[in-house]
């Protein structure tokens, strides 16, 4: 009888120990499960906040890029203002003063030529200019400044030998300008006075 009691007590003790171990293991598993849930929630929370930060980072460069575009849009305006200034400079080109005293043949007189010889030289000069005039006009039209310079140089050799003033002074200035610059407006201005002084020469020394 005593043996059965002892065995029963031992079985009861073992059952209690097993129950306690089971309960402890269950609580441990529950704590582990709760811990995992908390970790998952933290990860989800951090994941949800990161996209918003990324979105802000993406938006900020776009805003900066839009701000940077404003100065670039103003460049055409700056270019237009530069073109306008260039046009104003071209419009303010100063034309030369082409007013000279009347032509005279004093050099021929000083060299001792007679009136008949002087008249002959003057008529040859007028014919020479009359021949070179269409050549000069065509050269200006074609912007062939080499031919224009050659024609001026040919006439200049005759006018400077005969006298000064009028067409002689005009050709000196015209020829000098061709060597330095070739602004069409200035060339047209010289050509206008070239024709003026040529007409004056023909009036002064009629055939």
What is the CATH superfamily classification of the largest domain? Answer: HPT domain
Helix share of residues?
A: over 70%
Largest sheet: none
Order of helices and strands: HHHHHHH
Number of DSSP helical runs = 7
Mean pLDDT: 80
CATH architecture type of the largest domain: Up-down Bundle
Question: What is the distance, rounded to the nearest whole angstrom, between the alpha carbons of the first and last residues?
Answer: 177 Å
Beta-strand content bin: under 5%
The CATH topology of the largest domain is given as Four Helix Bundle (Hemerythrin (Met), subunit A)
**Gross geometry:** rod-shaped
Number of strands: 0
Structural class: mainly alpha
How many domains, in number, for the residues? Answer: 2
Report Rg: 54 Å
CATH class of the largest domain: Mainly Alpha
Low-confidence stretches: none
Task: Using brief descriptors, characterize the structure shown.
mainly alpha; 207 residues; 0% strand; Four Helix Bundle (Hemerythrin (Met), subunit A)
Structure write-up:
It is a single chain. The protein has 207 residues and is mainly α. The protein folds into two domains: 1-92; 98-204, Up-down Bundle (Four Helix Bundle (Hemerythrin (Met), subunit A)). Helices cover 85% and strands 0% of the residues. It has seven helices and no strands. It has helices at residues 2-73, 75-91, 106-110, 115-142, 145-162, 167-180, 184-204. α5 runs antiparallel to α6 (167-180). The longest helix has 72 residues, at 2-73. The chain is rod-shaped and about 185 Å long. The chain starts with a helix and ends with a helix. 12% of the residues are buried. The model has no long low-confidence stretch (mean pLDDT 80).
